[in-house]
Amino acid sequence: MIHRIMDKSKQKEIEELFTSVFTLSEGEKKGKLIGNLSSQLASNIDNSEIICFGVYENETLIGSIFFTRLQFSAPIQVYMLAPVAVSAEHQGKGVGQALINYGLNELKKRSANVAVTYGDPSFDSKVGFQALPEDMLQAPLKLSMPFGWLGQSLTGEPIPAIDERPVCVEAFNDPIYW
After folding, report:
1. Distances (CA, A) of 165 to 38, 56, 64, 135, 172
2. For a tag site, which of 12, 42, 96, 118 has the least CB within 10 Å?
3. Measured between alpha carbons, how far is 153 from 6 in angstroms, rounded to an integer?
4. Domain, as residue range, for 26
5. How many domains does the chain have?
6. pLDDT per residue over 28-67, tens digit each?
């Protein structure tokens, strides 16, 4: 398996992966929603505000993740991990964990301070994410499931408390994702 930093030229491939994974796991409506989100994100990959990583097996994309920048007025680099997709036949084999760890290591190389995600605590805890109280670091929009707001320091220092709501990339600025 080969991990790669993705670019805009892979938009269709990324969208197809996310659409198929989420359609299989959560139905056609959710598949279209997350497929469209991934397409919107992929069309704006700039490796600064929107970073995408993929994992290939035999030249086929089998997993992909996005990290998008959350903007605070404080001088801190915070990235949000979402969405994440691994093809059904490769799930449960550590592919997603390895890809997320690859992405987190790339963020560390870029001097990012914190990674957050809004997901499943039982899965995300396997790659270092822990519950993140919103009085420490707020989500960009109101959360429907606050227990899914998770974070981890990428510097070894504690996550600093920041008393402001960050601005997310445009694709995530919709309550439907929160």
Report:
1. 23, 36, 27, 10, 14
2. 12
3. 24
4. 2-177
5. 1
6. 999 999 999 999 999 999 999 999 999 999 999 999 999 9
